[in-house]
Amino acid sequence: MSTAIKPSHIGRKISRIRELRGMKQETLAAELGISQQSVSSLEQSERVEDEKLEQVAKILGVTKEGIENFSEEAMVNYFNTFNEKVSSSNFGHHNTCTFNPLDKLMESVDENKKLYERLLEAEKEKVAYLERLLEKK
């Protein structure tokens, strides 16, 4: 059995990241200014020029190193760990709300109403003050 390390296939990594981003080959091709067939052959290439890899990385919203170091296994492990943390917190399956959101909404509406009424009263006082000043002149 061989213990040789499988070479990194950059094209497959680009393809997988593009798919995870929900981007079609046509979209990537348009952004790069090349044909869809060229993107297809790029994704079948084991190696990609650094300059082209930089362009692809920028369009995909990742770094060049992010593409080079991309690992499907690491991604799955990351999301499994994330899901374990979420399910063990209050954001998981045992959600309990200690207040009624509609009550909170109505409280804020009442507060806004009171603030508006105070503002209106202050404006009325200002107008009355200015009218008294005008009458004295």
UniProtKB/TrEMBL annotation:
This is Helix-turn-helix domain-containing protein. InterPro entries: Cro/C1-type_HTH. Signal peptide: none annotated. CDD domains: HTH_XRE (cd00093). It holds the Pfam family HTH_3. SMART domains: HTH_XRE (SM00530). The keyword Transmembrane does not apply. Keywords: Coiled coil. Residues 14-67 form the HTH cro/C1-type domain. It comes from the Bacteria. Residues 102-133 form a coiled coil.
